[in-house]
Design brief:
9-stranded antiparallel beta sheet, two-stranded antiparallel sheet, alpha+beta, Creatine Kinase, Chain A, domain 2
Length: about 400
């Protein structure tokens, strides 16, 4: 076996470490938040105040992370606090088997954050895209990774700066038992991605101008970098498996590499060329996988990346929805769907919302069926979290339309 095959095996084996070898209903949750000035709605920049926010809440966390001497992350055993490129604050909650536990941890974080924001005259803006600031006015935080990504994405698409500076998401992670379960769930996540984006649509403004269409974040991500975004290109091939996923990643441009504390810009040099004579370390693998941004990402779990950030009750409803859908996927049959079908569904839903066409039916019809499936899969205690999302689906209006942001 040459080093090319060995490094692909290292990446694939890393993913396989996530096998649970039994059913797991755990859900991991990540919620990104814009911090804005109360009096203007303008985004708070890192050196204007985000750094001070982290310093104020730092004593409540066991661990801190610095980049070039600047505080950029805090974490404990339950969750981590990190910063997105323009200073969006993200909470990443460890995988849990009850939505009530996600709620408890989320509320614990907010109980620390909100009083500090109030002291500074700031607040959270719960949207999928910047509500007031223009991305050209937002600097990148002091982190080489983001500086180099920003530089690279200027060469690959039209929306790199919008993705990095302007977006905030609600991401969910689901476990898999083995390789067959992994591939089946991953394919389903790709297929249902447009519905997930629609039911969480919460981006009323695009750089200061009302956005009249739907799923702004989907539009933005689809125009960042065709090599590493959108739907995984070979996901429905008969021989698609974890190794195929790993090999695809290994043949992408690296953008940057990290070795210890050093980060180096590599531009469009391919990963397989950079590591032609060197076996990947675990640190290398984790970094390489973090630089691939499909709609759903395969790691040691499946990361579903389509949803906008929403107000808390909707974020929790979405977590319950994803848990319900992926508790038992045996009742879903989308064997006829292709990658071009997913692309066509995105375009239709962006233009027409719940009246768009997805895989031959109205989007609201499929959303209804998925909601009923989630209801049936959850117990009574968890089912109650679904109600806010049920209101969106039954009204046939997205969240930004229901709340009359525009």
């Amino acid at each position: 076996m040459d080093i090319y095959d060995e490094n692909i095996k290292i990446i694939a084996d890393y993913i396989r470490e996530g096998f649970k070898h039994k059913r797991s209903d755990n859900i991991g949750a990540e919620f990104e938040h814009f911090i804005v000035h109360k009096n203007s709605g303008e985004s708070v920049k890192y050196f204007d105040g985000v750094d001070k926010i982290l310093e104020r809440i730092q004593p409540h966390y066991e661990h801190s992370v610095y980049s070039d001497g600047y505080l950029i992350s805090l974490y404990n055993d339950d969750y981590s606090i990190t910063l997105e490129p323009a200073g969006q604050i993200e909470i990443s909650i460890r995988p849990l088997d009850r939505i009530s536990e996600i709620e408890r941890i989320y509320n614990e974080f907010l109980s620390l954050l909100l009083p500090v924001l109030d002291d500074f005259g700031y607040e959270i803006a719960r949207f999928g895209y910047q509500p007031k600031s223009h991305v050209d006015d937002l600097p990148i935080i002091p982190k080489k990774r983001y500086e180099y990504m920003d530089r690279y994405f200027k060469t690959t698409g039209t929306c790199g700066k919008h993705m990095m500076r302007g977006t905030a998401s609600a991401q969910m992670s689901v476990d898999f038992a083995d390789e067959a379960d992994c591939i089946a769930k991953y394919r389903l996540a790709c297929i249902l991605g447009p519905v997930f984006a629609l039911i969480s649509d919460n981006s009323p403004v695009f750089d200061g101008v009302p956005y009249k269409k739907h799923m702004l974040r989907t539009y933005i991500w689809d125009n960042v970098d065709k090599d590493r975004c959108n739907v995984f290109p070979n996901v429905f091939e008969k021989d698609f498996n974890i190794r195929a996923y790993a090999e695809h990643i290994y043949n992408l441009p690296a953008i940057l590499i990290t070795e210890g504390d050093k980060t180096t810009y590599t531009g469009d040099a391919k990963i397989h060329d950079i590591y032609r004579n060197k076996l990947l370390t675990r640190e290398n693998v984790e970094h390489i996988m973090s630089m691939f941004f499909p709609d759903s990402r395969l790691k040691q779990y499946i990361e579903i990346r389509n949803a906008d950030c929403m107000p808390e009750i909707y974020n929790l409803a979405y977590a319950a929805f994803i848990k319900g859908i992926f508790t038992d996927i045996s009742g879903f049959d989308f064997s006829h769907v292709t990658v071009p079908d997913i692309d066509a569904a995105k375009k239709s839903l962006i233009e027409n919302g719940f009246n768009g066409i997805i895989y031959g039916e109205k989007a609201y019809s499929l959303a209804d069926r998925l909601y009923r499936a989630a209801e049936a899969a959850l117990d009574a205690e968890e089912r109650r979290y679904l109600a806010p999302l049920g209101e969106i689906i039954s009204s046939r209006r997205t969240l930004k339309e229901m709340l009359k942001w525009i």
